[in-house]
Amino acid sequence: MSKNKKNRTAVGVVYSTNPDYQYQYEDDCEQTETLPPSQQKLHIRMERSGRGGKTVTVVDNFIGSDDDLNDLGRTLKTRCGVGGSVKDGQIIIQGDFRDRLVTILQSLGYPAK
Hints:
Helix content: 10-25%
Largest sheet: 4 strands, antiparallel
CATH topology of the domain at 31-107: Translation Initiation Factor Eif1
Order of helices and strands: EEHEEH
Mean pLDDT: 84
Distance between the termini: 49 Å
Number of helices: 2
């Protein structure tokens, strides 16, 4: 193993006994190119099931890199003044903020519904 690969993290494999196995590393994986806001088709919905009765607003269908998704999630949480998270390609905002999120996303150039 070369010196620069020693500190990198292998993706999808814990250990292989095959001496010819080629590990795939995190920085070798391709990042999805982020579409411009006008080409995104974001969907906003409210969920309550499976969350202990707590209401959350979920923003789906973002096409782009994880960094851009995290930036958008941070912006939405800040503008709504609440907490939330970004998981599995979804932005989860605590509380029912569907109307406010539509307004915020449209002001950012996203055609949201």
